[in-house]
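protien #1 (seq + structre)
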Amino acid sequence: MFAICAPCQPFTKLSRKELSNARKEGRERDSNLLREAAKFVARFRPEMILSENVQGIGDPKYGGVWNDFRSQLRKLGYATGSNVVCTSDFGVPQFRRRSILIAAPRELARPEFLEPGHDGDLVVPLEDTAAAVRSVRSAIGHLPSLPAGRSTQQSRTTRPGL
């Protein structure tokens, strides 16, 4: 399995500040990493590919890099699927929308995981219906409080009686 997560800075709306030329060049280089990753897929032929990035990577204003990557994978014989999902819909105690792309060789893709009526597209679920929505408190509320800047090790050795 290949997990390919290119830097998100070139594709996020949080990075609209004025950048130095060096940072602009770095962002341009980073935006091409998915195209470079396709070369590794072609060479090593993994049985599964997972890529995630910020929600907006599929926006055409970023040069179509997400769709280009998906097209490259299809040309290499992979069934692909892509969707924007929210982590909280999978039981993760965080509201975070991410673009997800999955791929597997067409010959290994089971029919029940293919989108009906879409030529070889894999299903990317939008939620895990068995996962309960969780708050951060429900996930970590049972853990002991820590003073700022301390770890659990430091807190144990500095508290009397422990």
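ok now protien #2
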Amino acid sequence: MKLKHLAPAFIGFILLIIFWQLIVVIGNYEAALFPPPLQVGEAIIELFAEGTIWSHIQISLFRFFVGYLVAVVIAIILGLILGRMTKIWSIIDPIAQVLRPVSPIAWSPFIVLWFGIGDMPAIVIIFIAAFFPVLLSTVAAVNKVDKVYLQVGANFELSRSQLLTRIVFPASFPIIANGLRMAIGSAWIFLVAGEMVGAQSGLGYLIIDSRNSLSLDVVLACIIFIGILGFILDKAIRMFENWVSRVWGGNVSV
């Protein structure tokens, strides 16, 4: 992020903190029910001093990247193939459209039964959250590839695999990149929910554990960590989209 963009962001965060404090004062909330910014700041400092927050963050990021990357690889491969097989996709598309709106958390009873507790339930939930946005954007991107490119590949007598890797994938990737960004936001949201279901560590678990002990300042501290990490991930994927735009061209968001 450029320096000229930091000042508005800093002002925005300051205004958010002021608004937060005003709600506490005007609403006359007890600190135990709605902790003020200063108390939450002290909880953040204490979490860093104890050092336990780092392990929870590392575990959450590990689960996120495993689930997200596996979903992206599988979804892109399937999307490239199914995007070229329109008749088969016409059969699969209604199934995907029915499954896509179902929250990954709705599958949590089965996920816990099948995979137990630990890392796997959260990873599977992240996988489900990221899979459909990438799959659908990949199929749509393949369908929008200029027919001239395909004709060029046919003239050079490229095989199907060569056509996908050398022409279809580079031509469609700028649009796929938008799906990657949507998936990263969805997957990060459901990471926390997944850790609330079948995990014994991570930021989501820490929120539940702190809630049970009525440490709402720690709950809000964890919410702040989740928001900051999500912000960083969003900026990272935007930088990746810009790189894609420079390398392969296309209209991507900035």
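The radius of gyration is 22 Å.
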